[in-house]
């Protein structure tokens, strides 16, 4: 069975790699350079508490260095979007007119340490200011040649050209340290409308980097206010380009997909992604939509873990193994998926009390006890058993009173019978609803050993 599973995984991964023109290089279109844009990109001046809060000592020091050497620097991308939504950004990224070489010379002269030089060829330098905080600062750039995932760039001093190469309008804005918001391609307007739109031609943007398909859905779940306010033309373009995802690494796809599954409209977005033919290229060639619909109907209000949504689409453990082979889950996420699939249809009707089977799972687990607890919690949410879920949340994990020291004191040294004793004592202790103490349990050891030896 394991051998067959491995063969299936290999066949599946090979099928994912068969995309059209995988080595095709595409020059940027001149049409993109002529996009409709604002004559004056400054839309207004931001002066909110969230904006003021970004100016810690390190940010102020970074700005002073750029001012000293007469280079422009602005906040870029997601932080601008978050601030315009009244949210405190988690990270600050910056864009500048200085080239990587100019930044290196500047930071070296100011005795500022630089780290992670791998991003330099793409224009990113990471200074560590005051030996306390790292900032990614990227030179304004144009993507000259792309292959659907990576780009050869050319540096520029034109802010509009840099905005033009970004994926979504809401991510293409800049913010000056004086609060001025620079919006060339109407990202602010789209943000107010909670509209997700590519900068310019969606087909051009997607073909530059197919991962942008996943980013479209991620930001829809984060920004949009209604479940199905997609632009149909955008969806059609995504469907036409879905096969490009086969050439994107599973790790990057999962990074975007997991964030989508943690946002709003999760189930509906997942179904929309499958409608536009994404499934087969991200590891879901035969999704179980019926099971997903059942899950959404009974449990979507229970704040499901991302793996619950994916588990619903999987028919069996083999499907989960194939999906893991494509997306490269963490061990925690992979094992949660296996656990949900194995336990979602279990029948515990004959148990003396409803929680008993789940208590045993947690107390007898060979993995981290907290992980086992999390997995049980999730499968109860998945099944929509809210009464049992609340009871399980109230359950305090008890400590098994017998340990190796006690067994040793009673003449039982580590060996084959040792683990058997522990298992039987724990099972009896659980069935007693944790009422049996050390003395009670020790008295049971001889009979356990006798039965073991008589087998």
UniProtKB/TrEMBL annotation:
Its cofactor is Mg(2+). Residues 232-282 form the tRNA nucleotidyltransferase/poly(A) polymerase RNA and SrmB- binding domain. Residues 74-196 form the Poly A polymerase head domain. The keyword Transmembrane does not apply. The keyword Ribosomal protein does not apply. Gene3D superfamilies: Beta Polymerase, domain 2, cca-adding enzyme, domain 2. GO terms for molecular function: metal ion binding; nucleotide binding; nucleotidyltransferase activity; tRNA binding. One of its GO terms (cellular component) is mitochondrion. Keywords: Magnesium, Metal-binding, Nucleotide-binding, Nucleotidyltransferase, RNA-binding, Transferase, tRNA processing. InterPro entries: Bact_CCA-adding_enz_type3_sf, NT_sf, PolA_pol_head_dom, PolyA_RNA-bd. Pfam families: PolyA_pol, PolyA_pol_RNAbd. One of its GO terms (biological process) is tRNA 3'-terminal CCA addition. Transmembrane segments: none annotated. Belongs to the tRNA nucleotidyltransferase/poly(A) polymerase family. PANTHER family: CCA TRNA NUCLEOTIDYLTRANSFERASE 1, MITOCHONDRIAL. This is CCA tRNA nucleotidyltransferase 1, mitochondrial isoform X1.
């Amino acid at each position: 069975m394991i051998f067959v599973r491995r063969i299936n995984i290999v066949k599946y991964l090979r099928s994912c790699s068969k995309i059209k023109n995988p080595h095709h290089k595409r020059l940027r279109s001149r049409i993109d350079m002529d996009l409709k844009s604002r004559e004056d990109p400054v839309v207004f001046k931001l002066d909110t508490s969230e904006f003021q809060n970004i100016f810690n000592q390190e940010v102020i020091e970074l700005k002073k260095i750029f001012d000293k050497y007469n280079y422009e620097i602005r906040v870029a991308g997601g932080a601008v979007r978050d601030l315009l939504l009244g949210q405190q950004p988690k990270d600050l990224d910056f864009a500048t007119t200085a080239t990587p070489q100019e930044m290196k010379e500047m930071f070296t002269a100011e005795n500022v340490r630089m780290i992670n030089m791998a991003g330099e060829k793409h224009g990113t330098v990471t200074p560590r200011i005051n030996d306390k905080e790292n900032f990614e600062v990227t030179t304004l750039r144009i993507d000259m040649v792309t292959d659907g995932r990576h780009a050869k760039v050319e540096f520029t001093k034109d802010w509009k050209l840099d905005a033009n190469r970004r994926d979504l309008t809401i991510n293409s804005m800049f913010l000056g340290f004086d609060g001025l918001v620079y919006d060339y391609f109407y990202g602010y307007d789209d943000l107010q409308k909670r509209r997700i739109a590519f900068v310019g031609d969606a087909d051009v943007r997607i073909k530059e980097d197919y991962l942008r398909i996943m980013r479209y859905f991620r930001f829809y779940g984060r920004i949009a206010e209604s479940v199905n306010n997609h632009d149909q033309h955008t969806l059609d373009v995504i469907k036409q380009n879905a096969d490009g995802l086969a050439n994107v690494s599973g790790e990057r796809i999962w990074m975007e997909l997991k964030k989508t599954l943690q946002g709003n409209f999760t189930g509906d977005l997942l179904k929309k992604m499958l409608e536009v033919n994404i499934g087969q290229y991200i590891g879901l060639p035969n999704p179980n939509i019926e099971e997903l619909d059942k899950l959404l109907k009974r449990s979507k209000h229970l704040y499901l873990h991302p793996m619950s949504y994916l588990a619903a689409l999987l028919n069996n453990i083999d499907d989960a193994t194939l999906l893991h082979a494509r997306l490269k889950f963490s061990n925690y996420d992979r094992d949660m998926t296996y656990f949900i699939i194995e336990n979602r249809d279990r029948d515990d009707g004959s148990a003396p009390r409803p929680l008993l089977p789940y208590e045993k799972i947690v107390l007898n687990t060979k993995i981290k006890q907290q992980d086992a607890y999390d997995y049980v919690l999730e499968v109860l949410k998945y099944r929509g058993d809210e009464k049992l879920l609340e009871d399980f949340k109230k359950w305090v994990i008890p400590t098994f009173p017998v340990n190796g020291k006690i067994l040793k004191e009673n003449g039982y040294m580590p060996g084959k019978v040792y683990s058997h004793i522990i298992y039987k004592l724990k099972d009896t202790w659980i069935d007693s609803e944790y009422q049996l103490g050390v003395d009670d349990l020790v008295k049971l050891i001889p009979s356990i050993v006798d039965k073991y030896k008589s087998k």
